[in-house]
Amino acid sequence: MMRLAIIPLGLLALLAVAMGWLGRRIDEPPADFRFINSGDIRTLDPQSMSWNQDIRIGYAIYEGLYTLHPQTLKAIPGTAERIDISNDKTIYTFHIRRNAGWTDGRPVLARDFVFAWRRMLEHPGDYTYLLDYIKGAEAYRAAYARFLERPAELPRPDFASVGIEVLDERTLRVSLNHPVTFFPDLLAFPPYFPLHQEAMKPFEQVDPVTGHRTYDMRFMRPPHLQTNGPYRLAAWDFKRRVRLVANEHYWDRANVRSPIIDMIVVEDNKLGEFLRYEAGVVDWVADLAADIAAELLAQGRRDPSRRRQDLHIHPAFGTYFYTFNCLPRFKDGRPNPFSDPRVRRAFAMAIDRRPIIQNVTRLDEQPAYHYVPLRSFPDYPPPRGIPQDLEEARRLLAEAGYPGGKGFPRLKLTFNTGFNHGDVAQIIRRQWRDGLGVELELEGVESGEFSQRLHNVEYAVARASWYGDYDDVSTFTDKYLSTSDNNDSKWANTDYDRLCARAAREPDPAARLALLSQAEQILLEECPILPIYYYVNRSLQKPYVTGIAHSPRNLVMLKAVFAQR
Amino acid sequence: MLKTVVWRIVQFPLILAIIYLLTFALAWMAPGSPFEAGDRKIDPMAEKTLREQFHADKWYKFLGYYPYRILRYGDLGRSMRYQGFTVNEIIGQSLPVSVALGIFALSVATLAGIGVGTLAAVRRGGLFDWLSLSLAMVGISLPSFVAASLLLTLFSVHWPVFPIGRFESLADLVLPGIALSLIPMAYIARLTRVSMIDVLSNDYVRTARAKGLARWAVIWKHCLRNAFLPVLSYLGPAAAATFTGSFVVEKVFDIPGLGQHFVNGVRNRDQTLILGAVMVYSLFLMSFNLLVDIGYTVVDPRIELSKDEG
Amino acid sequence: MKDEKESDLMSSSLILHPSSLLGHALASGRLRFGGAILLLIALGCVGTLPLTLRHGNPLHYDRQNPALSRQGPQTAATAQWFGMDLLGRSLLGRCMLGGAISLGVGLGAAIISVVLGLGVGLLAGYRGGWVDGLLMRMVDVLYGLPYLLLVILLKIALERPLGKVMPPMASNLVVLFLAIGLVSWLTMARVVRGQVLSLRNQPFVEAARAAGLTEWRIFFGHLLPNLIGPVIVYATLIVPQAILQESFLSFLGIGVQQPLPTWGSLAAEGLMPALNTVNSHWWLLVYPCVLLAVTLLSLNFMGDGLRDVFDPRRESAKI
Known about the structure:
Chain B is mainly α.
């Protein structure tokens, strides 16, 4: 029997050795700044970046022709030192800095941008539509897609038809369809980042029939990845951390405050993030869990002496809302009462947002009566919001044929599980029941299935949200164009489309914003969506950290961040 | 006996193949796409291109591509969600962590479980029987996420005995290891108690006592070995499950192990990762079951005869 | 092979006549204790259903009162004894209904496991040969499949058809215990098979055959009664397992549909509010967990007690 006791003891000994080996760290210099970025990054390919945490790292390792000012987050010249804009504002000529270099030393050239943008058109990603402002881009994209389907019958579209020209090694000219006031901001955004073609070449796969080039994703791993921004990707330990080291060949190297930055991965563990921050393992938690932030805020209110100065809660550039299915019939053929705007408006006017903000989210969010977050665009004249008026709501519902809620089918309120959407839904369901006499069932659906249901419009009313991507109202209003892929309520209004189209072509900024405001007015009257509250950004930041902009857009230019311990 | 072992090993590939196909079918049928990014709808062209890149646009293309690569190169493919990493890399990095933690947890569970179970059997019906067993069964009386979270909060926050968030030395293993050991400990304690009681009632035990052997010597020399058998058979699947990681423990203690990939892989509809993880788990399961069966004959060479003695 | 060893421990309890079972059952201390507690809790949860399900009653499981959000336990009103949750609902009421639903899910899953496990195990054990081999390999394969994937898919597959024949809340519960039951029957099948295999070759079966009894008589008269023991024991042990499975599913967000509570979902919801280091709303976690722990322990003790009952030989195991 003694023999058998050797087994567990031997295993424990083996374990001690294994742990020692596992935990070995090659001597590396400590980071100047460490932060938690709400989970691991999914991709560092600019073409497919869409999650905010990816975009944060993207801004650190890449740089577009424009970049964002670290404090104001307004577009300023980046890799391009001089930009000439034509009088009609449709032609941009970029002069790239001589001292802008990739992480391997090669200078940044105009063809790097052309290579990347062409790839965006030929190999579309989530944000490819942002290139449609360029003359000929949309047509080229469609033609190329058709070519890929039938390469034998159709000719290869000519890239020269797109309004992107290389004038010389460091000069790039872009022609737009019409003036776009926020084009500089777009140029700073990941879809417009450049790519290092030679570094990606070893991972290239060329389709023998079509000549279509795709790239094995390994190119985005260190040491293969070459970037042109303030940092280079030094290490990417899956699910543990990402290390960024200052790019020696970056043109503004002198202003990169923290030479080494570590992004620690804590995935889906709210308490863990907070505990690490308290223990001093990290200097900044970029997206603090809402529950913890709410508790900290409540604690500070109850006892002002314990108010946390390092807790930052600011309005965010996004709205939490419910979306209605606006199609005349559901997928199974039953008639959809929400296709009637009066019904939608009744539901929208019947709710009281305060219990949600006071009891569920508790972060002092602004209740939302508009779709575009109020005051996020200083010059934008807000339309009339959706009023909160239970009497009027009841009247509308009766007018639509459901007096007191009688005859209204028992539909489902769909949301994705895992956050507090269920709690919000329970409150709203109660309010619709008590206020309108309408009984809805709750349907909490797992995230993967929820996305699909939402995008395929297989719901009656569902929870949704939208964050703005760039510094313009159209980042919100474009979503509800009848042609937009992101219009998951399938609401279609020709006046809305017309106003947005006119606004897109309007050169005068003030007139443009007025048109968009009229468009939003239509949206708020027809209520394809029910805005509930505006998001807030929550972060914990050690007092010795400087350089982090507290902007609604929740972006940070890591090059300006400095931890002065 | 060698013949049976070989025969069992020969069956591995067939069973693995069936598991692979069934898992693939289940993953394929699940609604949702690994490439979708939440609120934003993915461009249909983009999704199509991605699917083609991953050989996931048609089921027969998937089955035509991946199994061959697995058999030929041992290459499980690229993760659909974490596109920069291959499944081999992901599993290669996380499996050792889970195994290390699993070994620790199982050792603790076995030692503690057998100890408590034996004592409870010997002092049957007494207060110790009830109390110790209740304690040992905490693992199956509370949801694992509660037990693990309580351990973390008590011993890392309130009384900062253990550090958080590192996975570098043996000390970092203790708390998650204990959390992971709770469930197997409960089962082992119960199994030991039951089979120990059974063994203790055997005639040869009475004979040994009558001959004047001390109580504990009898237990140690004669009973434990036989009582250990059901525990051994439980250890097979228990080891497979523990070594491949527990989602809850890994989530609560932030451990970069394999367990999270089972759950997250399903949530993310990451078909290549799911299949890779399931293959690893099945391989472990079958190997451990085989080892257990071999272990039976080691623990008691008279295993065939013991049936009639009882 | 190995599970036969486990069930061998049961097989020695061969010739127990059902009427003496009750006597033995009541004699086992474990069984009495566990059973008593379980009965108490079950009666409490089911008995309060008229209160927890009636709209307007302060104990109603979905009676939201925003002013009382997150209030701690008070002795003022019965409904406030356990405190209130974040929507101002009585935690006591939700725990009571949660218990009823948890036990219901456990029971449902156990029934499905018994039906399936008994069926498959009998078939495999009695027929033997290739049927046995095939069924057991199937069980092996099912053991190897990712449990979570199975549950998610089962839920998705069953939700629509069931939603057509019964109200949504009921269909959600049925889907839940179907999904859990359909993955819990495997051990039962193994155990039953082992039991049947060892029983088949027992002398008394040979004797019965020699005496000319038909297969059916042997089956119902001798095999089935001796299967009741292991089946009941394992069924009793499946109930707590199923309750824990549901709590795990709730933790992942795919458990019971809100606003219906189960102890598991209450524990999952209460985790963050209770264990965050800033401000702990401990009651949201403590009460559901205490109820869970006591009930599950009782069930497990009952199962152990039943095992003792079916092997009276162990009474003599004292040295």
